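Researcher: Go.
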Amino acid sequence: MISSFDSSLILDIPEKGICFSCGASSQRDHSTMTILEEILQEVQVALASAKLKRTAKELRSMAADAPPSLPFDRALASSFGLIAEIKEKSPSVGPMRSQNVEDAPLAYEESPIVRAISVLTNATYFGMSSERLRDIRKRVSKPILRKEFILEEYQIWEARAFGADAVLLMANVLDASRLRGFYDLTRELAMEALFEVHTAEEIELLPSDAKIVGVNSRKFKTDQGFMGRTGASKTDFSVDLSIFQLKLPSGTIRVAESGLSPTTIGEIRSTFQAALVGTSLLRDERGVRASLEEFEKAISSIAKPV
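Model: Structure:
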């Protein structure tokens, strides 16, 4: 278990960008950087600022005083449902509908199909913050996932300090040793992790005891490196669900991510135990409650797989 900040796990990100999943530097100027590389570099800047405002010792004290964590894994294992997301905007589609964002915490709390809530905490690209997560924590009783680009242990302590019950760990950003170390710390702090993968090869990087794995259909990189900027419709690719089904242990909680709607939820029901949904809820012109009701009808009409 990791009980203190381990500087060896911190990514060394040069000014001009890197291959984030392997740590190798690449001398590229800002104009040729992909959106993921830009986000990760901005996260480092935000981290430096956060550390000036709040020391590691202060975070540990806040974490000790935070409300007890809620069981994220048990919430997802109960029955098929949604991890419903809250964000103000996204790099791919722009702003969410403001009324939907405002209504989301209460709507998610009241919805019978929402098992947990995902809260983005990146300010620059998603318009959110850890403080927003803390405010939402006070308004809901369901487990909260801090959805952030986790690069350092500091952010895991920060997640617990502000009331998160789980963190996102991305296998296309972190190597196997960081995934292992960060998971150990997450569990030590009585939280759970949602491991995000995009390929069968990334599954091989995960800790053997990983409980929850999200399969993201939005590929941030190709075999040649990180993908460039494109619109949402051009960055969503189909994945071979049979590969993930075979590669993951039978007891793993599988979460489908990105591009899901009431009309497509049935396609993933037999392979996944939960779906992470954000944009379709938050941009629906009818309102977030109407969108949730449509998801509820779609899910209830699907027979539970044997």
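Model: The longest strand covers residues 114-120.
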